[in-house]
Write a structure and sequence with these properties.
- It contains 2 helices and 9 strands; from the N terminus they run ααβββββββββ.
- It is an alpha+beta fold.
- A hairpin with a 5-residue loop joins β5 and β6.
Length: 152
């Protein structure tokens, strides 16, 4: 089925409009995501606060720290039989694919996630818990790393 506008403006003109529309949408997407994001280099650790995002240099990916879903980590001023776990939610925005949600853990699996030929790793969740002191959501920071998958 042909678009009704094709009859009026011509097929070649419709193709150009479509092509330029995609380019314009790409620039809009990049400007919106870059307004609230920093660049992160592959192989280098980077940190994010809740609501912050980082664009992975050269990958057309943006990783956004959405929430801490669970924080049962052992407080630093306590003795625990188990280290506990921090469960963190991220949103990955990919310009060529749909957005997806990734959940990573500090102690339990998964601690790593495949990410467009790379691996996303949750390095740490801060601040550490202290017995009797609550952590407000805005105080959380994660340290992440994106590593290239080895080509074995």
């Amino acid at each position: 089925m042909r678009c009704p506008l094709t009859h009026i403006v011509g097929e070649a003109h419709m193709y150009r409009l479509f092509k330029y529309g995609i380019v314009i949408m790409t620039f809009i997407w990049l400007s919106v995501t870059s307004a609230n994001s920093d660049n992160a280099l592959i192989g280098k650790d980077f940190s994010l606060g809740i609501g912050q995002s980082a664009r992975i240099d050269g990958e057309k990916l943006v990783i956004k720290f959405k929430a801490v879903l669970e924080d049962s980590r052992c407080p630093i001023n306590a003795l625990c039989a188990w280290a506990g776990n921090g469960k963190v939610e991220f949103e990955v925005l990919d310009i060529k694919r749909e957005n997806k949600t990734i959940v990573l853990n500090t102690e339990e699996e998964p601690r790593l996630a495949p990410l467009k030929g790379n691996t996303l790793k949750l390095v740490s969740l801060n601040p550490p818990r202290i017995d009797g002191v609550s952590i407000s959501p805005g105080d959380y920071r994660v340290t992440l790393s994106v590593e290239r998958k080895s080509s074995e």
